[in-house]
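Example protein was shown:

_____
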Amino acid sequence: MLTLEGAQAGLSWITILKRREHYRRAFAQFNPAIIAQYNEADVKRLLNDEGIIRNRLKINSTINNSQAFLNIQKEFGAFHTFLWGFFDHERTINQWKTNAEVPAQTEQSVALSKELTSRGFTFVGPIICYSFMQAVGLVDDHIQSCFIRSEKTTHD
């Protein structure tokens, strides 16, 4: 998800969603152990892949972030253990009444962005981090009238 969030920077989500399967193929089913080993030949191959966003910075970011991801996984045992530490192991379920109330970033996304950046990640600004937090279910920003809205706060 973090790869797709970074790829989306400056673009519309539909652009990325239409290419998600291409990203999955191009980036070894999002296997960080494989991606972390990519070299310049892989970067050149990816720059020629019309199925993904052919931006050298974003491609290098995915490779670099895979290496940083593996370091966090090694330190914490799992990436999700690291992430849940920003939430005291409880999902944030906000009480927004309208979509206009939903923020683009929060103190938690700023903190996560700073920590990921300090650990070598790129394309992980506070807005990208907040979108990631929403996408993976750490934050539920569905407005109160939304049928998808959740009431469960703890993770399994």
The domain at 2-140 is CATH 1.10.340.30 (Endonuclease III; domain 1). The first helix runs from residue 2 to 8.
